[in-house]
Amino acid sequence: MNATVHLDIPADALASARMTLEDIRLELAILLFKLDRLSMGKAAEFAQLPAGVFQNHLAARRIGPHYDVEDALEDAAALAALAR
After folding, report:
1. 29-84 pLDDT, tens digit each
2. Please, which of 2, 32, 42, 78 could form a disulfide with 37 given CB 3.0 to 4.6 Å?
């Protein structure tokens, strides 16, 4: 069972920002993903969205998956091992 933490956001701050709680949750999830603090799956979970919907939000902002040269080399080695 996951514990939850509550954050109080003044209603007037949300109104001034013209945002809903869902908007805030999505923005924070995207930021944490961009900062490499959350994986894509965990960020989608944080945003309370299906992974595909969250990925669409990232794509709309031109934010790609975190996939670097090391990841590519690991994938290439795994594929080569499977081909044997």
Report:
1. 999 999 999 989 999 999 999 999 999 999 999 998 877 777 778 888 888 888 88
2. 32
**Contact 21/14 with Cβ under 8 angstroms?**
yes
Tokens 């670097």 belong to 68
Q: Is the dihedral of CA 19, 39, 36, 79 positive or negative?
A: negative
Q: Which residue type occupies 15?
A: A
CA distance 61 to 63: 5
Instruction: Name residue 76's amino acid.
Output: A
If you ran DSSP here, which 8-state letter would residue 7 be given?
Answer: -
Is-contact 44 50, C-beta < 8 A?
yes
Q: Is residue 2 left, alpha or beta, with left meaning phi > 0 and alpha meaning psi from -120 to 50?
A: beta
